[in-house]
Specification:
Chitinase A, domain 3; 11 strands; 15 helices; 4-stranded antiparallel sheet; 436 residues; alpha+beta
């Protein structure tokens, strides 16, 4: 495990000297001290014994949470040491290349990690504390992982090429066909109609289902609504039915799902036991992907501290009237719109794919004829008016299939190249393991 190359930098001796000076000064005043020890020298840097032990403790805590058998202590220590060596080498590469992760980016990442665990950031911090872990240490470890990921992508990415022939071969393979088969992840809300319900009672439940569908299309939280209102078996999971291939869907949903884009919420669907509302949480695969694209422009009016909800709606209505009376849409958009991304283009969003837009905007766009101006409507961003300029059908099937094939091939090659690259970096580094 030791490499006998000469130490390329003399700065380590300063570290040892500093430690000796601290020891002597403390001994001189009669105070006992427990010094940390250098465990590993990696090029011109060191890994301390405390760092090794901290990482071992973190791994053991994770193993305990997963309720799996821990490896023998000597084997675990060996694995941790090698992990720290490779991590240190990559951090040194990052330092030389000027690769950094700023605090704002790191904070956003920590919030996303907390969100994926169904927690706010403060709840995530409390959960770590209950498990005996330090949030600050976890945060810095995430920073290091983000930096090493950037180092790897920059170093390995340029070594990988994916040819057109490789893409063709993958698409024709069984693995490729299976990966690209249409699959849907559907959210489901059931408003159950009890047996022997009267026509009046059924009408009330139908109206309730229609109201929920409308609110969901305006941006209401589907998981929250499913947990609150659904009588379906997956209500406690936010109505999530998980990923299913098309032939695995209930026949009632299979008729609707292929026409829904990601984020779409259906109108209530009547069945023998009630009214169903489904949301396309995600979709993947499929042979033919015809995308109805719309060329649209809009003006966004956001409520603010100086303009409340009613005033924002009134301004949107006033702008609509002015356009209908002959004023130029683009000029008004440049003057009044709060969408900074489209100001210079006069509110023009260009050709838009439906699943790139929020549901409230998408639904109004679909129901507005070419060259017509919509009524003011609300989305999660504020009040809009929009004008549909053109529509077209664009077949994105080949483009999407080739993109997915390229991604799969790239990932396979990346995993292979990563192991080779890490081995190269390890072999070319000066490493002296002092303590196991």
């Amino acid at each position: 495990m030791r490499t006998n190359k000469p130490l390329p930098f003399p700065s380590i001796s300063k570290t040892f000297l500093a430690c000796v000076m601290v020891l002597l000064s403390l001994q001189a005043i009669g105070k006992p001290v427990r010094l940390d020890r250098v465990a590993i020298i990696v090029n011109d840097d060191v890994i301390m014994q405390s760092q090794v032990q901290t990482r071992i403790d973190a791994v053991l805590a994770n193993i305990k949470r997963q309720n799996v058998q821990a490896p023998p202590s000597d084997k675990l220590r060996e694995q941790v040491v090698e992990q720290l060596i490779l991590e240190n080498i990559q951090m040194q590469i990052a330092e030389r290349a000027g690769i950094r992760v700023d605090d704002n980016t790191l904070n956003s990442t920590m919030e996303r990690i907390a969100g994926k665990n169904g927690m706010t950031l403060s709840e995530f911090q409390e959960a770590l504390s209950r498990d005996g872990a330090s949030y600050q240490e976890a945060r810095e470890q995430v920073r290091r992982e983000m930096i090493t990921t950037r180092v790897r992508e920059g170093s390995i990415g340029r070594r990988i090429q994916v040819t057109n022939q490789e893409i063709i071969n993958y698409l024709e393979s069984e693995a490729g066909k299976d990966r690209l088969q249409a699959q849907y992840r559907i959210g489901h809300i059931l408003i159950k109609v009890p047996e022997n319900s009267t026509d009046e009672e059924i009408l009330v439940l139908k109206n309730h289902a229609e109201q929920l569908s409308r609110q969901l299309n305006e941006g209401a939280d589907f998981e929250e609504y499913a947990a609150t209102y659904s009588n379906g078996p997956n209500a406690d999971k936010g109505g999530d039915l998980g990923w299913r291939k098309e032939n695995q869907l209930p026949s009632l949903f299979a008729k609707i799902a292929p026409d829904l884009f990601k984020g779409d919420v259906s109108e209530p669907i009547k069945s023998g036991n009630g009214f169903h509302i489904i949301k396309m949480l995600d979709r993947r695969g499929g042979e033919n992907i015809l995308m109805a694209q719309t060329h649209v422009r809009h003006i966004l009016i956001k409520p603010s501290a100086i303009r409340d909800e009613a005033q924002s709606q009134a301004l949107a209505a006033d702008l609509r009237a002015r356009i209908l009376n002959g004023e130029d849409f683009a000029s008004l958009a440049k003057t009044y719109s709060d969408d900074t991304g489209t100001l210079n283009s006069g509110g023009d969003l260009g050709w838009s794919n439906p699943n790139d837009l929020v549901p409230g905007f998408r639904n109004v766009m679909r129901n507005t004829a070419v060259n017509e101006l919509s009524e003011p409507f609300r989305s999660r961003y504020g009040w809009h008016i929009l004008e549909v300029l053109e529509r077209r059908q664009q077949d994105l099937g080949d483009e999407i299939r080739q993109k997915k094939a390229r991604e799969a091939i790239y990932q396979r090659k990346y995993d292979e190249e990563l192991q080779l690259w890490l081995r190269e970096q390890r072999e070319n580094a000066y490493v002296d393991i002092k303590v196991y």
